Amino acid sequence: MTVATETEYEVVIGLETHIQLQTASKMFCGCSADYANAAPNSHVCPVCLGMPGVLPVINSKAIEYIIKLGLALHCEIPEYSKFDRKNYFYPDLVKGYQISQFDLPICINGWLEIEVEGRRKRIGITRIHQEEDTGKLTHTNLNGEEVTLVDYNRSGVPLMECVSEPDISTPAEARAYLTKLRQMVRWLGIGTGNMDEGALRCDANVSIMPKGSKVFGTKIEIKNMNSISAVHEALGFEIKRQEEELQAGAVLKQQTRGWDEEKRVTVFQRLKEGSSDYRYFPEPDLPPLQLQADYLAQIRTSLPELPEARRDRFIQEYDLSLYEAELLTGSRATADWFEESLGEEKTPQRARATANWILNELFAHLKEKGAELDEAKIQPRQLASLIDLVQKGTITPKSAKEVFEEMFATGREAAEIVKEKGLPQLSDEAALATVVDKVIAESPKAVADFRAGKEASLNFLIGGVMKATRGTANKDVVTRLLREKLS
Ligand code: ADP
Ligand code: MG
Ligand code: ZN
Known about the structure:
8-stranded mixed sheet; binds magnesium ion; Arc Repressor Mutant, subunit A
């Protein structure tokens, strides 16, 4: 009898991520880089159209932005770097070459910390280099003819490429890495990081090798995923496919595969070209970059408090859980919103209440509307005044939810809505006592039962008071009054 043995594999993943920079102008010319709503080929000039004899000029904002990301990802910024020409032909590349960086990128040797299932891990950043985007091709049918339309508005838009070390071991880690990277890009305000708009694009390299092996397997690159979850899914599919191939005795070839969004499979595109095919050489029209120490220091000083530091401070200063702090620092806008609504009241109790309102009510309402935080009508200080009303006992937590609904929908002040709805919580004892007396008088059986030792009857009486006050009575006060009057 033979027993089939299955080899156990180890997964190796490295991600190459292209990130558009949100600068006003393009990388090497003065054209507007904001092409989102522009008519095709309206943001072009001789430079980004690759006309002969024109000269590129480096966009200093783009350099500042890539350095910001590099510093945030713990990279070294060498004093010298340079631009190179990457030569290849494709209709979206008007010059016949892309200005990129080859051997001397602006940022090297950094890392990004991820957390998966409570485990923290550093993923190495090999390099981040500066380059320019290509034009956009649209394959379509025009009057019954298959045609390809070209739009060069995107040609020359600043693009960074961030290359990770092959330190990622699972699709979940890849997802965490991309989520953190995108968070950082948005946090620094250097790009939108929107994958569905192509402002962040990820090529995922994945190989498998027998567990414990020191030699990496054949790397396969996957392209065309337009969301982080698609990257996660594509990797999962590809790992399984490679395992099946190897189990069947096949030899894998280095190749580029595409993610088919509809069929949810990776499909072969081409065998991978090596970097020698690009004939990189130094860009003769641009001087090497020399980055002075004081210039770097200035950029470092300009960095905002970064997500991890802010998360850890939230835990320290406000006694929040790691989970809460992670969510509240998911974006800079959320973290700002939270701290703005806290205002000067920084007690852990207040922080917890505020965090709860934001993470539960506010997020749920935004999600339901498909809206972003910056579109919310309710403002941080308005939430604070709602929390004040609850903490002072003016309204019940239950009424507060109702008031929140209205605040979220209209952006009106809590106090105004409370007044209009006649919601003040009855903690005024004299007013409540009248209601309590009335309920006692109307419920002789419950009263008798309670006096005979049946505790549950008290709940019935409390319920009667809550009903009579339409849920606005302060339950603690009601309970105390009932006990006093019935003892
Ligand atoms: P290429 O020149 O083909 O683009 P690179 O050496 O630049 O290859 O690596 C591209 C990406 O692939 C990097 O993120 C790197 O970490 C990753 N990578 C390299 N080797 C492997 C491998 N065997 N398996 C998975 N990923 C890998
Ligand atoms: Mg590469
Ligand atoms: Zn231009």
